[in-house]
Design goal:
By secondary structure, the chain is an alpha/beta fold. The protein is built from 16 helices and 15 strands. It holds the Pfam family CofD.
Amino acid sequence: MADSYLGPSSKPTTASLFSPQNHSFSLSLFSPPPFTNFPFFTKKPQFFSSSLMSSSSPNGPSKLNCFITQNSHSPSSSSSPHHYQPSLLVFSGGTAFNGVVEELKKLTTCVAHVLPVSDDGGSTAEIVRVLGGPAVGDIRSRCLRLSDQSTSEALSVRTLLGHRLPLDAQVAKSEWYDIVEGKHPLWKGVSKPYRETIRAFLVYFQDQILRCADEHFSFSNGSIGNFFFAGARIFFRSLDAAIFLFARVSDIPTDSLVLPVISTNDRLTLGCELWDGTIIRGQNEISHPSKGSVQTIDKGSSSVPALPARIKRVFYMSSEGCNLLHEVFPSVNPTVLEKLQIVDCIIFAMGSLFTSVCPSLVLRGIGEIISSRSCPKVLLLNGSPDRETSGFAASCFVTAITDALNRTYGDPENCLKNTPNQYINTILVPKDGQIPVDIEILAAQGILSVVTVESIPDPKLGVIFDPESLIEALSNLLNAPIYVESVSRT
């Protein structure tokens, strides 16, 4: 029988993330061996403590990573003792900025990646439809890009968690059973402690699917990393704990944080209001509408019809909402606010402007802190227009970000009146990009620093930043040297 592997010996049974008295980390997943004996729990769990304890315990430590000390130019623990790493916070989605993550490590690993949790397309959509909860696809994507590649086992884990099942539903389901039962060739090269840890959460995910007997779950084009992430999130009842586990399994540098902009176990729905009054519900419907089938999303601008009008604003809707009366106001992840106050540089990354970047900016508290900072605040301009930004010039991107941070078209009692240059003081532009750079209007907005960066053509995305040149430009801006690790880990 296909589900025979769901036995009591392999199913997770109980979790206690920390004791209220001493905040010690304890998790009973297998007996024996104890979970904390696994190799990725041998280091002090800095990521877990800073992103979880700060919001879960009033007495627990809240800043246990390099972000506390970076403003005093102290070196990161993960690099040469003579290498100062600037601390960055990046607002982005899960795709466009991924292409520069590896190169960015040469400048710094002390980066807080702030990502939305409202994606409702592809494999993520199917998980949210059946099991609910926030979307984990963008977070999983960034975690994989940050994961270790220095050993054969690290590469095997990365390959496993980055694997997607076939589009054919029956073939996908069959392959899924091979993976969750531990029979698939993808497990080759993954040692037993890692294998049993990863597999336990895949088993738990499968158990949750079986409990939803009334909902037929499609494994078509499913992401193994998404399934692992969803299983961990449901098991721990915490998105932050799932991120910590994923970070340890994939050996992400401890001073690199992947932060959901909203720390929640609830489903979040993004809506947008167009200038003609039209309301569109769902991130995928705004950015890359499809016919409802699970498929690979094509993010090329020519693959989808144009919007009937430009986007006025994005906002969050209740799970059953379909108009402006159903707008909700979730709270921002407090760790994001902590990092915004102390990082050396704030970056608005390239990508889908209204569905990847703006969902993080419209939350209360974000605009207040960014406008108060005197650090570099950098916009990475897209190289090509998309469905959301058709007809935009560079100043239109600035206006959209300013309006989102000011919450200009939301609740009038909670809007700000800050100027564009209080949010952005530098724009990096890809050479030969298709977005017009209207220097005079940018100057009128108070933005005088516009830097052209070498670019490369991408067959799907058009003109994009050359990663090496982009990191060099950031290095010059921050007056921080680029560092190349000379000795690989073994």
